Amino acid sequence: MGKCLDFKNCGFDNRDGARFCTHCGIPTKGTLLKGRYAIESLLDKDRGTVTFQATDQQTQQPVTIRALIPKDTSTQEQENFLQDAELAVSLSTHVSDPGSIRVIDYGQDGPVVFMAKTALAQPQQPASTLSRLVNRISSDFFPQTPPAGNMGGDEEEATQLRIAVPAAAAVSPQPIQSTPASALRDWLTEGNLAYEHGAYDQALSAYEMATRQDAGLVEAWSGKGATLLHVGQPDEALVAYDQAIALNPNDPELWTSRASVLHDLQRYDEEMYCYDQALTFEPDYVYAWSGRGMALAEQGYAEEALVAFDRALMLDPQRSTIWQAMGDTLYSLQRYDEALIAIDRAFALDDSQASLWDTKGNILRRLKQPEKALALHEHATAIEPDNATTWFDKANDLRDLRNYREALSDYDQALALDPTLAGAWYNRGNVLAALRIFEQALDSYDRALQYDDGLISAWYNKGSLLHELKRHQEALAAFDRALSLDVHYIAAWNNKGLSLFALGRLDEALAALDQATSFAPEEPDAWYNKAVVLEKLGRKQEAVTCQDWARSLDQQAKDKQGR
Prior knowledge:
It contains 24 helices and 8 strands. The protein is α+β, with helices and mostly antiparallel strands and 563 residues long. Among the domains are: 31-118, Phosphorylase Kinase, domain 1, CATH 3.30.200; 453-562, Tetratricopeptide repeat domain (Serine Threonine Protein Phosphatase 5, Tetratricopeptide repeat, Alpha Horseshoe), CATH 1.25.40.10. The strands form 2 sheets. It has a 6-stranded antiparallel beta sheet. It is elongated and about 100 Å long. The two termini are 56 Å apart.
């Protein structure tokens, strides 16, 4: 994940590949500003500005990047900043004293306006680059004493990872072996740094020592909870968050973090209670609203989820993840036009995520625009070539465009990445059936049912192919499985009647077709088939009546189309 470099005040877990933090807007680690300045670490933050350590890729020299925080500054403030930066660059051309700071560049990239500064070469190197970096962090980024009132865990994106990032508010640690025995170790900061760098075992040990050193240190309990959840120990994480909340019960961040743990434990009612608690203490806490919306959407309460997403976006309309979650929810409700609007809003904020391209492609396919959908899914597979779902969706576009051979290739690619993808096996079977490669199609349906034996349409299509191959007894078994899952499956009753007719079981065939015409009296096919069976049984007048009714239904359908 692209964790926000400001893990003290933000710590948001962005999706892989995100260039800017979705929450606060600052660049993530590794981002190339203007394709030149590679962001490495956060050095300082002060009143709407952040300062980064970076490397100039053109000269391979270290530089300092000073930027405005997008969510904390207005458009006018950004314009003023760029004007000041332009003047600073002009003045810096006249500076040549060794050690002087020069502004060498400025500009805007995405939501960020910035200037690049560097020091001219010194006559002597006082220390290594690493030493200067560590000293800068320890003095500026981690104050000696936590600020008053900052006792909770950092904010999280509940709709994404549902984990809280531990706050960092202490002295930057020196390596363990160099710490004087007489010094009081700052275990909290060591835990925070270890967590930030992915050393979770070390982080847990440090947080444990911090809580032993001070059992009332809320941030240590919160950090411990976040780390335990990250390493797959949600039960232990819940204990840690419970301790943090016992110490600071009015912190909405802690309640939202606890909700994330309960979501992982599938204790959804308790999860919702935590969001309600968070919103009781801070009604405008955007993370609780977004987390609540995601939880409701996953539990099938789509309309209620949309209300929560609306509230979250009223509070912070610059959150692409919430716009995407809203788009996904509208898509599930088949409100495709509205879903497209929401996804486009997410795109305007961050178009780097494969999932956005994929979702928009799916919406366009549902809107009967498979050509446009295909272009989007091609881009999604280029961004994430190892994502089975995007290959599956691209194959669906090709299927709708009747490019069956190409679709087959992409279904195979999806299944090479995830052989348990039942939908891909099912659609692969449909494409093979369209190509009249029936035996392989049957094998694909069987593989789909191996991973999801409740896939009704796979049972039905399997039965239809078996009937086509005159394997009527096997077809009958498949239709019965489909009907055991949905007794109102009209097409299955109709085709079951055909298989029974082919087996010479006329009375049973008539009973099956009676079911079809009873459930769907306006469908002409079942009436035509029923007429054939009745005639075979010698009930000619009833057969004529059924045939006349079927013709009448056909004519009504034609008349409607002609209007």
